[in-house]
Amino acid sequence: MEDNFYEFLTKLIQDNYDANIAQEILSGYNKKRATTFRVNTNKTTIEDVIDILKSNEIDFNRVLWSKEAFILNNGKETILQELEIYKEGQIYLQSLSSMIPAIVLDPKPKENILDMCSAPGGKTTQMATLSNNQAYITACERNPIRAEKLKYNIQKQGCKGTIVMTKDARDLDDMFSFDKILLDAPCSGSGTLYLEDESISKYFTKELITKSVKTQTALVKKAIKLLKPGGELVYSTCSILKEENENIINNILRENNNLSIIPIEIKDIPTLPCKLTGTLLVKPNEEYEGFYVARIKKEN
């Protein structure tokens, strides 16, 4: 890694956090994260998955905030990929942090839900599972290749009531209207960096952050237009930078006096300080990626 890149990254994190927290984050960028996954309860039971893991001598931990989520203690994800439960779509490899937005959205049967940036489908299929395959989910993905991967995962996970639109969500007709919207926005990925990645300085740039903010702003404005009165929007990124997170949400709240924050009350998750009360900023460590989640209600 080039010295000038580390200087850029250090200044960026120090501009967002005090010295002690900034150092913790920078140190965390040197650590590999554990393999984590969730059980697809539309295809199997948690008890059956536990029995299979134990019979294969696979050591795991559970997390307190989701009964479907597991942390692998021994070995890499290839161990899981060799199992039939993986091949049959009964489990899904997914980071713990990226499981949080769908849980916060709390999809219910018969709700019309929009997933604005869906591929590869982790959150889309999770919402189908959480609603027992009874929510009506529209999954948007503008990239045709990524859309095919999304369709594959939806089929493999046995999701019903889910349709894929190979379309930029910003171009959806304003005549559409949804009860709930999940916007896991394209971002810089500042919460997921790994400093031993030799190509990091090529893709993580100031230009990427600027481009991400522009895209995030356009997407969240579109989401508000498409959200029904009384509906809820969950906004998330795998970034820990305020310009991609609380600044975006503060701006949309200032522009719309019919919006309010619904406080997120999930416990037992490591967090970073955030000035926007009620939103969640996950601290990156050996188990979690850095992640931001905000839940917004559109008043009647």
Model description:
The structure is a single chain. This protein is an alpha/beta fold. Helices cover 37% and strands 21% of the residues. It has eleven helices and twelve strands. It has helices spanning 3-16, 19-28, 46-55, 77-81, 84-87, 96-105, 122-130, 144-156, 200-203, 206-226, 246-255, and strands at 36-39, 60-63, 66-72, 91-93, 112-115, 136-140, 162-165, 178-184, 227-237, 259-261, 280-282, 291-298. β5 (112-115), α7 and β6 (136-140) form a beta-alpha-beta unit. The termini are far apart.
* Rounded average pLDDT: 96
Give the termini distance in whole angstroms. 51 Å
Oligomeric description of these chains: single chain
Give the CATH superfamily of the largest domain: Vaccinia Virus protein VP39
Count of folded domains: 2
Low-confidence stretches: none
Structural class: alpha/beta
Name the beta content range.
15-25%
